[in-house]
Amino acid sequence: MSIESSVTAAPVLPGAGPAAPEQAVLDHLANAQPALMSVQRQARHLTDWGVELAGRLLAGHRLLTAGNGGSAAEAQHLSAELVGRFDGERRPFSAIALHAETSAVTAIANDYGFEQLFARQVQGHGRPGDVLILFSTSGASPNLLAAVQAAHAAGLRTWALTGPAPNPLTAACEDFIAIDAPAANAQEAHLVALHALCRSFDAEIERRASTGGTS
Question: Does the first or last residue of the chain, that is N or C, have fewer Cβ atoms within 10 Å of its Cβ?
Answer without folding.
Answer: N
